[in-house]
Amino acid sequence: RHCLPLVTLKAAMTLDGKIAAPPPLVPEPPAKSLPRTDWITGESARAHVQTLRHKNDAIMTGVGTILADDPLLTDRSGLPRRRPLLRVVLDSMLRLSPESRIVRSANQDVLVLCSFAEEKKRQKLRDLGVRVEQISTVTADGRPEMAAITRRLGDLEISSVLVEGGSAINWATLVSGIADKVFFYYAPRILAGTCSTPFATGTGFPELAGAPRVKDWHLHSFGEDFALEGYLRDPYEISVT
Known about the structure:
The chain is 22% helix and 25% strand. By secondary structure, it is an alpha/beta fold.
C-alpha cells in the first residue's frame, strides 16, 4: 500500500541490554579459522535467526559490524526463497574492505548505500560484484537518512528488511521511526559495566512517554534463551509524507 518494506529490528543481548563484552585490554589478532566463542545466545537461538533471515527480502547492517565481525549475512536455512536475499550495508564513507567475506561472496546481491565516496572506491567494489548507490538525503553528521534508505529499498520492491546491526544502527533505526517490529533474543546473563556495548547508543529518548512501546508481544523459548517478538506500530497505519 505504501511502497515501503516492513522493517524488523533484531538483536541478541544479555538481560541488562548488552550486545558485546568489553574489548580485551591487549587486542589479539583475529583467528578466523577458529569458531567464535563470544556468542551472546546459544545454538538454538542462533539457528532461529536463519528463519528470520529466510522470511525477509533483505538484511541490513552497518559497516561497523562488517569491520568488527566480518559476517557473511546469508540465509542458511536451506529453504527455497521467493527471491535472492539482498544484503544491504550502510557505509557513509565507503570503508568496506574488498577483502571482507561479504564482498568476496558478492554476486550483485550486496548493496552498499553511501553518502560520500570516491569514484575509484565505488568502481572497485562494483568490479567485485557489489552494487553501490549514493543516498543524497543525509543526516547532520553526514550519514544516509534512514527514511530515504527505506524508500529506496521500496523502489527496489523489497517488501521486508531485517536490521542486524550494532549500537549505532539500532539507535538510528529506532529514532528515525522506520522500525515496525522487534525480535529481541535474550540470554540469561548479566555483563554490566560501562565498557560493555549497549543495545543502542545515541542520546536516547528524552522522556519515557516518547519512547517506543512494544505492542502485541509474545515470547519464544530457545533452550535457556528466550526472545520477545512484538510490534512498534501497525504497518497498515503507516502514513506516507
